[in-house]
Write a structure and sequence with these properties.
The chain is an alpha+beta fold. It has one domain. The chain is 48% helix and 27% strand. The protein has three helices and five strands, in the order ααβββββα. Strand 4 and strand 5 form a beta hairpin. It is extended and about 80 Å long. It starts with a helix and ends with a helix.
């Protein structure tokens, strides 16, 4: 029985390994099977990021104010995720998500407070008209509730990161102090010659 279980496990592992090495199929728009979905070119992403950074600024400011006021806030990440869709006549519409974890700064656990177990995403929708990005819909919040257990795990992860950062700072300070002491000793030794 053990031998057949081991052989089955090896066969599954080999199948997974070989499937990962195989070339991936291209993604297709099934509504328009002749049109392949494509990522945005780098220059379009750059122009959209420039536009979105201006639009997202007030949302970052709002969350910083909420954190300072000890209210539940979202730790928004500084990176957008993009989902481009291609319509008729080569029209490009992009949903750009900016997300983060919700924290309650009044509860202990980490430097950010305690995670509530909720992820929130701010979704911006824009279409490209000529060379200009035009807002299709007002930004809206989407919520994903992962539960209290996930919140505890997120808080624990941040707390471990806080401890690691404190240890690195302490080591850097000790290294700087040792370097300063060595430099001072070298200076004294040079004056003694």
């Amino acid at each position: 029985m053990r031998k057949s279980t081991a052989i089955s496990a090896v066969a599954i592992a080999a199948a997974l390994f070989l499937s990962a090495a195989a070339p991936r199929a291209h993604a297709y728009d099934f509504n328009h099977p002749m049109r392949e979905q494509k990522d945005l070119p780098p220059q379009m992403i750059k122009s959209l990021e420039d536009h979105l950074s201006d639009e997202a600024g007030p949302y970052f400011d709002e969350q910083d104010k909420r954190k300072a006021d000890k209210e539940t806030y979202i730790d928004l990440q500084q990176k957008f995720e993009y989902l481009p869709t291609y319509g008729p006549h080569h029209q490009i519409t992009v949903s750009a998500k900016l997300g983060g974890v919700e924290y309650d700064p009044n509860k202990p656990g980490s430097s950010k407070g305690a995670a509530t177990g909720t992820l929130k995403y701010l979704v911006f929708t824009y279409a490209l008209h000529g060379n200009k990005w035009v807002e299709v819909a007002k930004p809206k919040w989407e919520t994903q509730n992962l539960g209290a257990a996930a919140g505890r795990q997120m808080t624990g992860n941040i707390a471990r990161g806080d401890k690691r950062e404190a240890a690195q700072q302490k080591a850097a300070q000790a290294h700087a102090a040792a370097a300063a002491a060595a430099a001072a000793a070298q200076k004294v030794a040079n004056h003694g010659d």
